[in-house]
């Protein structure tokens, strides 16, 4: 027998699971071809808020990834992340799309997901 309350609860739980999957798909470590050996990390929080952190060199970093550390605020919605790079002198709203390889940024750069890269 159809129960509208159960249907609404089921739909809400499926939506929550889908949202959690989308949010967690950005969490991880990445390689940035514009900054070789430098660290790139994203940690997404339940609400969609995220922290993007890393290191910078000149332009690359030593093999251990050391360099000038930074941390930025971001927001994840679906398969898109928007990062405020203004503390580093960049745009305040750079968008990136999740791809099978990593993140394709609107400026044309791609951060490669280290887990996906290792699986190849």
List keywords for this structure.
8-stranded antiparallel beta barrel, single chain, 120 residues, globular, alpha+beta, 8 strands
SSE order and pairing:
Layout: H1 4-24, E1 28-31, E2 40-44, E3 49-56, E4 68-77, E5 80-83, E6 94-98, E7 102-105, E8 110-113, H2 114-119
**Beta-strand level of the residues, as a percent range?**
35-45%
Based on helices, strands and strand pairing, what is the structural class?
alpha+beta
The overall average pLDDT, rounded, is 84
First-last Cα distance? 48 Å
Strand runs, count:
8
What's the order of the H and E elements?
HEEEEEEEEH
- Percent of residues in helices comes to 10-25%
Q: Can you tell me the residue ranges where pLDDT is under 50 for at least 5 consecutive residues?
A: 1-23
Q: Helix tally? A: 2
Q: Biggest sheet, in brief?
A: 8 strands, antiparallel, barrel
Strand order of the largest sheet: 1-2-3-4-5-6-7-8
Assign an overall shape: globular
Alpha-carbon Rg, integer: 17 Å
What do you see in this structure?
This protein has 120 residues and is of the alpha+beta class. Helices cover 22% and strands 37% of the residues. It is built from 2 helices and 8 strands; from the N terminus they run H-E-E-E-E-E-E-E-E-H. It has helices at residues 4-24, 114-119; strands spanning 28-31, 40-44, 49-56, 68-77, 80-83, 94-98, 102-105, 110-113. An 8-stranded antiparallel β-barrel has the order 1-2-3-4-5-6-7-8. Strand 4 and strand 5 form a beta hairpin. The longest helix is centred in the first third of the chain and has 21 residues, at 4-24. The N and C termini lie far apart (48 Å). The model is unreliable at 1-23 (pLDDT under 50).
């Amino acid at each position: 027998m159809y129960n509208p309350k159960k249907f609404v609860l089921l739909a809400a739980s499926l939506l929550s699971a889908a949202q959690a999957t989308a949010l967690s798909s950005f969490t991880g470590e990445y390689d940035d071809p514009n900054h070789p050996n430098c660290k790139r990390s994203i940690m997404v929080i339940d609400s969609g808020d995220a922290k993007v952190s890393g290191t910078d060199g000149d332009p690359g970093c030593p093999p251990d990834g050391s360099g000038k550390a930074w941390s930025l605020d971001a927001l994840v919605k679906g398969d898109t992340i928007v990062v405020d790079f203004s503390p580093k002198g960049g745009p305040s709203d750079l968008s990136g799309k999740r791809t099978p390889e990593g993140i394709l940024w609107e400026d044309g750069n791609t951060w490669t997901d280290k887990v996906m890269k290792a699986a190849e």
